[in-house]
Amino acid sequence: MRAAALYGILGPLSLSLAMTALLATPATGRPLAAPPPAHPTAAAAAGPPAPTAVAAAPAWSGSPASAVLASPTLVVPRGGAAQARGVTVAAREAAARGITFGSCPSSEELSSDVRCGTVSVPLDYARPHGRHIRLTVSRVRASGPEARRQGALVYNPGGPGASGMTFPEYAAQDGFRKTAAVYDFVGYAPRGVGGSAPVSCRRPESFAKTPTSSPQHPSAAYLRAMRTRARAYARGCVRRTGAALRHITTLNNARDLDVLRAALGEKRLTFVGASYGTYYGAVYATLFPRHVRRMVFDSVVNPGPAQIWYRNNLDQSLAFERRWADWRRWAARHHAVYRLGTTPARVLAAYRKAAHRLARKPAGGRVGTGELQDAFVRVGYNDAYWDPSARALSAYLRGNPRPLIALAASESRNAVADENSTAVYTAVECNDAPWPRRWASWNRENTALARRAPFETWDNVAMNLPCAYWPLGHDTPMDVTARPGLPPVLLLAAERDAATPYAGAKELWRRLPGASLVTERKAGTHGLWGGPNACVNRKVDTYLLTGKTPGRTASCAPRPAPEPRPAPVPGSGKQPALPGGPGAP
Description:
The chain is an alpha/beta fold. It has helices at 81-97, 177-182, 204-207, 220-241, 250-263, 276-287, 310-333, 335-338, 344-360, 369-377, 386-397, 402-408, 415-432, 439-452, 457-464, 502-511, 534-546; strands at residues 14-17, 21-25, 115-122, 132-140, 151-156, 158-159, 183-188, 269-275, 292-300, 490-494, 516-520, 553-556. Strands 3-4-7-5-8-9-10-11-12 form a nine-stranded mixed β-sheet, with helices on both faces. The chain has a three-stranded antiparallel β-sheet with strand order 1-2-6. The protein is globular, with a radius of gyration of 22 Å.
């Protein structure tokens, strides 16, 4: 799908707009990933600590090479024996080098207490002494006493295509203080993302050109043009990125994570992955079960090999339709505020009226039906978008386009980051797995799906269609499963999550018999950790601090439904700050 959520606030620590991106941000509201573009993880480690005890803090001083133990039995993907040996070599060398942390590049726009460095990883793990690339890493040290320190907590917000470089800044926020007291908060940009050997498929200025069109019932001519664009985009990825493109994969993301673990001096990894981060985290757990200390999977991608990635996108389109209906019911309940209609059907009619107007005359010359769609996909990601989206739509229909332009128009300053995020998303999903090669298959299945779920289906097709014409080979998705030595892990899921439908969490829970699944009932915000649900946060804190899970399953009542916020300043078009976002109280 598209990466709409990447470009805004996704709610807790996750972002998934690129399947529509598989990505999320801490529920504080501030995105962890690069703001806008928005979708689907060497050596015999000691056994896990008792689940109720706080594990001893790994020593940071001394030789970091001690973090890489003798050589674990690795799960080897088909044809991957050389890569498995390469990971062991790369991790051992990274442990010996460590990471030299210093000032962060100004381009990262991080606070002065965050320190940055790089870790070197092989482009191709089958050739560990061949070409290397550098991944950018950020860190804030644990705020509590050294005696209580439990090591590094590494975070990934998803995507594919999102950077976690801003994660250390969450250490100063109230919702994360308990974990930040005992863990160093570590973020990084995965291969291909941001400063980590970035990939590209189009010129950013061309990629960011607006307004765009996004019909929910496309004509035959529109679909032909979509196919032409998808072919050109796939060719552009190869032309602009070259041989490195084939190595942008989930398997390599998981291997990189183990090299990062070793470079940080950690014998075992403590990791929180959101959205797509749950998938490559699960792949990591399958490849390196004895290197896992604790793992939290927040908003879970369905890891079934047959689901990666084409089927997951079909399921996602259907789930977005359900969540879109949730928003329309909510807007109808607040008709007195927004005046969009007293029933969900009338709210939908208001949205379609706006789309019809924008198709004829884009707002401010910048917001067409494509930008409208991107903006309203966000209501499927996070309840924090519900009020500003309703207000912007209402104002536009009453003659004031400024709130809609503020909500939906893309910013040229984000063009490079947005293009890069989408390029990485495309490379990972196309390289990871087989896709239908015949347009007839896409057309047949998505035409049928669009009759039930018109809101996001064809935009999801447009996002992923380059994979039908991908000129490179592809991997075979890993059969994620629990291997000997894997300690209990914690899964978080909202029942009505659109970006990562709840069935995916149940599938990973089934595949990992020792896992604990925490469900936020009757809720749909994508990304739970750090959000307003204290029940969820307590369970995450307990697990990260002690290793104790709440049992095989647990549930939490939903967060309160959003309420209309104060109106914008009359005539200014300026929207109130989203909860927890920049400028919010």
